[in-house]
## 1
Amino acid sequence: MPSVSRLVLDFCRLALSDNDDGDRYYMAAHELAENVAKYSTGTRVSLDLVMTEQDGVYAMKIHARNETSPEKLRDVAERLSELKRAPDALEFYDRLILETAGAEGISGLGLARIRAEGELEIDYSINGSELTIIAKGPPRRPTAST
Amino acid sequence: MSNLQSLSLDTWRLEPEVVAGAITVRMSGLGDMAVVKPFADFLAGLKDEISSADIQRVEFDVRNVQLLNSSCLKSIFNFAFRIKAEHPSCQMSFLTSASQAWQARALGPIQRMVREQVTISAA
């Protein structure tokens, strides 16, 4: 995992002119990578980082894909749906921290953290037993190529 | 005599120092899924030390931390909640790097939720 983290950080810092922007995507990619490692029940997993540009507007997209059980799919779909609907990302994250306080082991905070601290949109899709989670958003500062 | 021990793993290091009623913990490395359990155990020991030695101030120097995953963050949040409940006079401070703004952002929730006892500064 440290070598994957290093690759992600190097990519983010190469693609972005601002290290702090790189750190936002690095955090999001790392949380998604750990999610894939923790919840996957199959052998097909992937993590893709793509910098896109449309009409001069840049955005980083992180796709995390893995196969998991129907029970875990239902659980994560419910949590992702609630996270997407929450009008205030920071308030939702703080509430989740309080609700899960004391429970050790898996944090259950990673996706909410990506939205609140990383200021990234979260989306997801389910295809059979495959779950794809997407975190995306524009850099705060112009990219290195602009 | 402090019972707190340093923790040194491949990519994660915690160095506590107890001086005159205060504890400083220098943290460095990658706080990823490999270190979640030993980190939580360390914080449990730190909480015990605060209780037994009547510690009034704890400083976490996180300037050399490159990553804190949500599970490691949760351990810090839970530690702060326990200190708030059991030792309301104990102050907790976090020293972050001015060039690593993510560190203060990541710790932001405890400053919002344990406002009276937590300070976050950058150097």
## 2
Amino acid sequence: MESYLPILYFAAVGAVFPIAILVVMALVRPKRPNPAKLAPYECGVAAPTDAWDHRFSVRYYLIAVLFVVFDVETVFLFPWAVVYDKLLLFGFVEMAVFLYILVLGYVYVWKRGALSWA
Amino acid sequence: MSQSLLYNVLIPVTKAVVCFLVVALVAGVLTLIERRVLAALQIRKGPNRVGWNGALQWLADVVKLITKEDHVPSKAEKVVHLLAPLLVMAPALTVFAVLPFGPDFSVTLPWIGKVTTPVHAAADVNVALLLLLAVSSIGVYGIILGGWGSNSKYALVGGLRSAAQLISYEVPMGFAVVAAILMANSLSLVAIIEAQRKAGVWFVFPGLIAFFCYFVSGVAETNRIPFDLPEAESELVAGFHTEYSGFRWAIFFLSEYANMIVISTVATTLFFGGWLRPFPNVAWLGFLDVVPPMAWLLLKVCLFLFVYIWFRGTFPRYRFDQLMALGWKALLPISLGNLVLVAFAALWGAAGLRVLGAVLTVAFAGGLLWARLRPARPRGTTSMAGRPAEVRV
């Protein structure tokens, strides 16, 4: 486990780094807020509602679900690729079957129009 | 001082601090280089007033960003708005821990003695690649939370688009990376470089298609032109960082450049031999060894960074549905098909990969030649005008 420690340090320093910058910068920069400055970006008229009251396309959820499916497939491929030089033909056939099922689902999703945005 | 403290704490922490300072510096200078290169591509001058021919422009920009007011919109979700930039930057910097910058090296320090670092990578772990993909995708949270927490329509839509784009392109990127793992049979970045030394050629030859998929997805992952949809000015103002100003905006910006450096380094490591010189086993090219390994790596990374800027000066932005179609309907099947192709070639081991590399290289060169030699369009017509009428854009 010791070889993983540097990653932890990098993560810690990576989190402290921007915080430190922001704290130091807070001493330098001006702070003169006024209501107009703090209003959310709009066309000039104050926004009547919160931005998160608006609805957005359900396709974003669909993409997220599809991503989970395909990304899990990718994760299955990682260990397979590492030991591929030992599995060879067996690994190839097995993964071909696995990918065939994946591609079937992919074709189905495509035909149902889940991949087209408009 | 005990040796274990030195090796386990001091050296990694020093590496982290030095690494981040260098990244910040490079990102700053890169903005200047980017503006000058873009200017050259567009036949204008670019920033040339501050310092010698504009050499200090980036420093002036930093000073401006530092002294700018940093405000939080009154309706925003304050905590989320404050934390989002940190959530983007911390993962972008953390992945530098596993990037290998050079082979073994040792220095003799005056009061400590001889210090050897295993590789320039701070952590040579055997799941480096998996860790890299996993950690770098945490940045999506920062972007979507920044967009959502701002409580602004433009920021919200920008954040959503960005999340959809980032996760969509992670799939072909994953498949492309698997093809590289398949050739090296390891997840460790150092082992992948060593495998390229053993194979005698860089993996870009058998992995030409995988490299293409990886780099295109990488450009999309960093929200760079032509995939800068989340911050498309003409429709979304500035996308997810519309409501950010001052140095918290700069943190998003720095993270983007840090991510560009990571993508370039990983592309170099997986497909262009990392710190290896070209054709590492060919003896008569030995004179190339006068260039130190780390310089080879930096040279290749700089080339990729230049390609990033070149893209920006060349390609128009995609529309959002085109972007999604490219990711899901083009890159995904291509990278998946390529994976099967590489796996098939790897059945015959190194020899199979060599044949595949030769075939792909010849096909690529042939394609370039054909594109060059085919009858040119009449002078004065743009590519749009030359298209058949039924293609509506």
## 3
Amino acid sequence: MIKLADIVQWIHQWLTDVLPAFWATIAANALAGIAILSLVLVCVIICVYMERKVAAFMQLRLGPMRVGKWGSLQVLADVIKLLLKESFVPTRADKILFVVAPVLVLTVSLMALAPVSFSDGVQMWDMNIGVLYITAISSLGVIGVLMAGWASNNKFSLVGAMRAGAQIISYELSAALSILAIIAMTGTLSMNELVQSQADGWWIFKGHIPAVIAFVFYVIAATAECNRAPFDLAEAEQELTAGYHTEYSGMQFGMFYLTEYINMIVVSIIASTLFLGGWQPFHIYGFTAFNQVMDYIPQFFWLMGKVFFIIFLMMWFRWTFPRLRIDQLLKLEWKYLMPISLVNLIIAALCTVMGWHF
Amino acid sequence: MGIASILTMLLTGIGFALIAIGIGKGFGMHSWNPQKGEPYECGIPTEGVTWVQFNVGYYLFSLVYLVFDVEIVFLFPWATVVKEMGMFAFVEIILFSLFLFMGLLYAFKKKALSWM
């Protein structure tokens, strides 16, 4: 069976044969960048289509049906529409910050993808602080959001940006504490080693109750960090028109829209790497035939399957829970999620020290 | 690929964003009139300036956040070695988080965690 790692290796070998060492490195890096970018774009297209279809089916309608079979080309049509719109800068806006903000937001969310382990041996850089790097980089995005809100010179944008800031920094705490519960059990921060440690079972099964609690809390915190309903106060349509990107139009708005989905993909990748075994296939101990059938599904599709499962969960939340008020949102984090996940981390550490997990 | 991978993603992000926005600027419509430059506040003309001081009801959260974020930075190296160090690391972290928890309780008592 051809593995993704082999293909990567062939391309690398071919490049080093054809080009001198320096240019080969540059070409390899450029190819890796383009590969990850196109992977993310394809995922975003699927996500947008899925979002509309899931929303439609939960409301007993059909969703987009006209453009292409089952409306499958709808997203493409939307992209063309966005390209043909004018990217407009309001007269009284802070021009430089207004233009920089969408670029910054997108760049930061793409940079978070550098240490992700897509399959066995397919990774840009297996850095030893992978998880810390992703948490650190992805929280830089809030600066872009605040920039956009401030530069727009619009009251809706400013209020939306301030809300987004408060929300993202608050929920980062319980997200990081949930991550730490698994790190304590594994003893590594490298994304690849984290996945390798789950070869005999995913952490959500191996880690007993602390891991399950950590998973639930991480998904809640991740939903809030992505500013998605029921935590979508930053762009509550009924109150703030569109929140921090009210003034944006055309492709500049498109960048914010894209970033929203890339952030969802990034948090889903972290959740599936830490809790659901990354690219490890699903195995049941003792069922050899079943396990071998599962092994035939490529590792890359296992990762993507888990990622889309978590994205589906987030879409499900959106149409299940009503939106929280800002004080309820902060109360939920500071009075419930944060203390409980701190205690949960200590219990997870106790499990590790006593050797209670498998 | 080492640190070059971070640089690659940085350049990919900036490059893609600039190209996409550039294409949008090239293909897009261009028109201008005085009303178009106004901030969009649902059709009503804007009152006063936007860049004013206003009461952020949750500014104390960001101060408490700072304390706990630093705590989490300390917890990352702790979490990687807790398996090897065993009971010593566990007792230590209980003491560490006890002090921080008292800080949270103090903030709670002072009503820093409720809506101002």
